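Subject: Interface between my chains keeps coming out wrong

I've been trying for a while to get a sensible model of this assembly. When I model each chain on its own everything looks fine, but I need the whole thing in one frame so I can look at the contacts. Pasting all components below, labels as-is. Any help appreciated, I'm running out of ideas.
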Amino acid sequence: MTIKFVTNEKVAETSSKGNQEKWRENGRWYKLDQFGYEGLSETVISRLLEYSNIKDDTPFRFVRYRMEKINAHGRERGGCSGADFLQQGESIITLSHLFKREGQNLKESLTRLSSDRKRIEWLAEETAAFTGLEFFPQYLTLLFEMDALFLNDDRHLNNIAVLEKDGRFDYCPIFDNGAGLLSNVQTAPMDIDPASLIRSAVAKPFNTTFNRQIINAQKLFGRQFRMPKLNEDAIRRELVEPLTYYAKRDRTYISERVCKTILIRQKEYEKILLR
Ligand SMILES: Nc1ncnc2c1ncn2[C@@H]1O[C@H](COP(=O)(O)OP(=O)(O)OP(=O)(O)O)[C@@H](O)[C@H]1O
Ligand SMILES: [Mg+2]
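Reply #2:
Try treating it as a single job with all components included. I did that and got this:
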């Protein structure tokens, strides 16, 4: 296990309004755990995505994250890193930023619409129109489907983005799934049964349920995300190495929560597909 040392100065370097401390170094972006086991969630989700249809059957990509031990602020902490996906001259434009740049008040436009379905349709199609990315509606649907499986409740409009280079746009590799799998132990305390935390989870960016979000998106744009059925053994296999980055006393809790979250959400997802 390698330990990375950073100075306070470096940890402070960030380009986002997010809370998790992050910085770029030697071609990688590092993120420190803040509210729980975000690094493990990020790593395990990106490993499970290897089994999905994203790589081979879609024009989309996702960031591969790995666990990191980071000595920051004089303490050893867990975190993760992912390779910088920006090519020379390319920038990442989050949807928040994109709409602001186009002179649109995104929040106001979304509130004006009368249903989640209309909001999803509007966001997907407006973005496709601004950028010329014809499959953006499918990209957005895929994000919502993934988030519903992994219970990522942090898909706000700065965690959805496009890439731009010389006025031309491209799909941004899917990033920031760290809030999934109940990683925030402050809002989802360890002593509460995961099943009840899962029932009360709220999906971003429309603050609706995960089920409603995918039902609407799939009705509009069709199913995008496919994943072989995961069983507990398969999930536990992906957890073995990431768990070593956390205190021994927490490992059983974390792996229980992660397994329960995926298995419960997978069942819900299957029910939706059978409708
Ligand atoms: N692998 C990467 N390649 C290029 N840029 C990155 C990468 N990872 C992070 N960034 C930059 O950092 C920003 C924030 O990244 P990310 O959303 O992963 O962090 P976060 O702290 O979890 O965010 P938040 O708390 O705001 O949701 C991105 O919008 C992007 O500008
Ligand atoms: Mg983010």
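Reply #3:
Confirming on my end. The beta strands are 3-5, 22-25, 28-32, 65-72, 75-83, 91-94, 161-165, 168-171.
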